[in-house]
Automatic annotation (TrEMBL):
Top-rank taxon, per record: Bacteria
Name used for this protein in its record: AzlD domain-containing protein
Transmembrane portions of the chain: 72-91
Organism: Actinomarinicola tropica
InterPro entries given in the database record: Brnchd-chn_aa_trnsp_AzlD (IPR008407)
UniProt entry keywords in alphabetical sequence: Membrane, Transmembrane, Transmembrane helix
Phylogenetic lineage: Bacteria, Bacillati, Actinomycetota, Acidimicrobiia, Acidimicrobiales
Amino acid sequence: MAVGAYAFKAIGLFAFDARPPSPKVLEALRLLPPALLGALIVVQTVATGEQLVVDARLAGVLAGGYAAWRKAPFVVVLVVAAAVTAGVRALS
C-alpha cells in the first residue's frame, strides 16, 4: 500500500510537470484540505464504530467551533472545547 501511495504521488508530480493544472483544478485542490479536515472532525465526533452517537464530544466541538468563529486564540478554543466537554460529561 505504501508503494502504491508513493507511486500515485510520483505520477501526479510527473503529470503536473508536463502540463500545468488548470485554474479550476488548482481551486479544487485548495478546497480539499479544509473539506477533508471537516469530514474527519465530524466522523471522529459523532461516530462510534458503525453507530452515530451524540454525546459530550459534540458539545465540545460545537463550543470550540463557536470560539474559533469568534476569533478566539487557539489556546482559548482548546480550553473552551475541553471545559464544555468535561462539563457535559460531569452533568450526564
